[in-house]
Specification:
With about 475 residues, the protein is α+β, with helices and mostly antiparallel strands. The chain is about 40% helix and about 30% strand. The protein is built from nine helices and 17 strands. The longest helix has about 30 residues.
Length: about 475
């Protein structure tokens, strides 16, 4: 009897040691299989960068993102200033006057243009801009400009990419036409961000060296202050651009009414539409109504180049964001590999047979190759179909492979079912954005609970 007990204890001890060693080696193999994951992530980033290069090339030839700037009144005048020696001298100064009211109404026709395997959203737009300024005497009074010191007065207008103009831009006022021609001024301004501008941000003067890339090639026309009707200035704009259409809220009251044929929209910049636009009958109507004594803080500016801090508009999205989703799914590689290996490990212990480390490794490699297959397919047929094909192919491959050495349809079915549920769970997470963390954490908790439930039935220290 004592000999039998000793033999059982020895066998239990040997089994425990083998289990610990095998568990350690499986853990090391899991970590080793994570080595290719950063390379796959780099591959995804590289493919996305290639797309960006192609998109940049196409938009450079069509027209880039557009921001509509103005119109403004520019007054060039002499201003008395004190120099370094304390002498009073007259220096040339520019003062910019923004409108009391700016009304913009128009339509945007967006479409996809493709180059190689990539698509870019481009658009054409027709806009009617109507501005109302104070009368010129009131402008002079508010700006404290001496009429005798005025050198010239201009109406200025612009968009960020001058290649976008499809026809001459003509301002109309008082029954007269004022063709706007290229001005030698170029304003460099910071890229619009959703962050709230600081109180004095409008005083900064961006330079070409510190600009982010928003640039306005201005159009202008000299005006006769005696005959120009400041009360009503209209501009018909026909232009083209890509991906984004923004506006500068250059009036104390700015009203924009935009109709587009594009369904998938994101609202960009510092101001949201008055109401959530609804896509109906192939059209989306978007309305912004903005009153802003602040942040503009008045209508008189010594430097009007920094207005894009306050821009707003609409981004024409492509919903086929397969690079982002593939990148996110690849980050779950450790979950795929570790859960699959955990299932194999429990099967080994419970059924007392040996799965070779090479077989573990081959299954892990198949899971890694799945992500390469996913990114390559998604560039042609989109993420959803690619995920279905790549995950289905991987599950079938692993199923046929493990059945050859498990030789049990019941165990093979359980592992295949686990993989199907796991891939379905990850796919569901990829469709979520704001709630992904909540759903993911609950899912992981359930997975841990299931593993704990099955592990309690394993006789770790006993021999049948």
């Amino acid at each position: 009897m004592e000999n039998n007990n000793l033999e059982k204890e020895t066998e239990n001890s040997t089994f425990q040691n083998r289990t610990m060693i095998k568990g350690f080696l499986v853990g090391v193999l899991t970590l080793c299989l994570l080595i290719p994951i950063p390379f796959i992530l780099n591959l995804i980033e590289e493919r996305e960068q290639n797309k960006e290069k192609v998109m940049t090339e196409l938009t450079n030839k069509w027209s880039e993102k557009q921001t509509v700037y103005g119109p403004f009144i520019e007054i060039t005048h002499l201003e008395k200033q004190t120099d370094d020696k304390g002498k009073t001298v007259s220096k040339q100064q520019k003062t910019y006057i923004s409108a009391d009211n700016l009304n913009i109404k128009g339509s945007v026709n967006a479409q996809l243009k493709n180059r190689s395997i990539y698509d870019v959203t481009v658009y054409t737009t027709k806009l009617n801009l109507e501005s109302k300024f104070k009368n010129f005497q009131e402008i002079l009074k508010n700006s404290e400009i001496d009429a005798n010191n005025i050198i010239s007065t201009k109406l200025i207008f612009g968009i960020t990419d001058s290649k976008g103009y499809e026809s001459n831009v003509i301002a109309k006022s008082g029954g007269k036409n004022y063709p706007l021609i290229a001005d030698n001024q170029i304003f460099y301004t910071p890229e619009p961000t959703p962050a709230v501008a600081s109180e004095n941000s409008y005083d900064s003067t961006p330079t070409k060296e510190n600009k982010t890339v928003t640039e306005f090639q201005l159009l202008s026309q000299k005006i006769d202050i005696e005959t120009f009707n400041f009360n009503k200035v209209t501009i018909q704009l026909s232009a083209k651009g890509s991906q984004l259409l923004n506006f500068i809220p250059s009036g104390i009251n700015t009203y924009v009414n935009l109709t587009t044929n594009w369904k998938d929209l994101k609202y960009d910049g510092n101001f949201l539409p008055n109401e959530t636009p609804i896509y109906k009958d192939g059209k989306t109507n978007i309305v912004w109504s903005i009153y802003q004594q602040n942040p503009l803080q008045g209508q008189i500016w010594k430097d009007a180049s920094n207005f894009s801090n306050y821009s707003f508009g609409v981004n024409f999205l492509q919903m086929n964001d397969h690079y982002e989703k593939t990148y996110r799914s690849t980050k779950y590689a450790i979950l795929f590999i570790s859960l699959t290996f955990a299932a194999f490990f429990f099967i080994e212990i419970k059924n007392r047979f040996n799965i070779h480390l090479v077989q573990y490794a081959l299954v892990g490699i198949a899971i890694c190759v799945n992500f390469v297959l996913l990114i390559s397919l998604s560039e042609y047929i989109g993420f959803d179909y690619s995920y279905l094909i790549s995950s289905g192919a991987t599950i079938l491959l692993i199923t046929f492979f493990i059945n050859t050495f498990l030789q049990s349809y019941r165990l093979t079915f359980k592992i295949s079912l686990m993989l199907i549920l796991l891939y379905s769970f990850i796919y569901s997470l990829l469709q979520l954005k704001e709630h992904a963390l909540l759903v993911g954490s609950i899912g992981l908790f359930i997975i841990v609970a299931i593993i704990m439930y099955y592990s309690k039935n394993i006789e770790w220290n006993k021999v049948k």
